[in-house]
Write a sequence for this structure.
């Protein structure tokens, strides 16, 4: 089983279908899921003065952000999967035009046109995510980690045939 986990850098858009296209250069990213909202989405130049996570003896991480202590655990992407960072674009996938079938006399409803498929650009990859919590290491029941785990289980179930 192989697959991809995606992190879209503009999650406010509600597109029905996306086609993934690889960018001309694909970087490797360090993904951090923080327990707060930051009004920036994407890469940034971070200095040690503002962000300097320390590795602890138990495998967890500790950092301070704006005076608050954060604790984290690293979640590896399962073997056979790849983490992708996607960037939405306004480009539409051009599909070959299919001739419309003639409507029967009994058919009162016009045939619906297919939804346009937007292109998402694959700009980066990752093989692990660092999930941060306030003052304590997120557990296996953390909603984000559990969501990823459930998505993988669901994907495996629908692709087994």
């Amino acid at each position: 089983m192989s697959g991809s986990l995606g992190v879209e850098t503009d999650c406010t858009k509600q597109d029905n279908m996306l086609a993934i296209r690889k960018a001309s250069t694909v970087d490797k990213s360090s993904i951090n899921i923080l327990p707060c909202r930051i009004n920036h989405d994407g890469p940034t130049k971070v200095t040690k003065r503002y962000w300097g996570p320390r590795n602890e003896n138990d495998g967890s991480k500790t950092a301070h952000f704006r005076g608050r202590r954060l604790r984290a655990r690293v979640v590896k992407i399962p073997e056979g999967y790849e983490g992708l960072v996607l960037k939405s674009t306004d480009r539409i996938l051009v599909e070959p035009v299919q001739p419309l079938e003639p409507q029967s006399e009994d058919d009162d409803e016009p045939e619906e046109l297919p939804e346009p498929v937007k292109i998402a650009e694959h700009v980066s990859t990752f093989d692990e995510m660092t999930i941060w919590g306030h003052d304590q290491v997120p557990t296996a029941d953390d909603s984000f980690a559990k969501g990823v785990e459930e998505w993988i289980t669901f994907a495996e179930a629908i692709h087994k045939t």
Notes: The chain is about 10% helix and 40% strand.
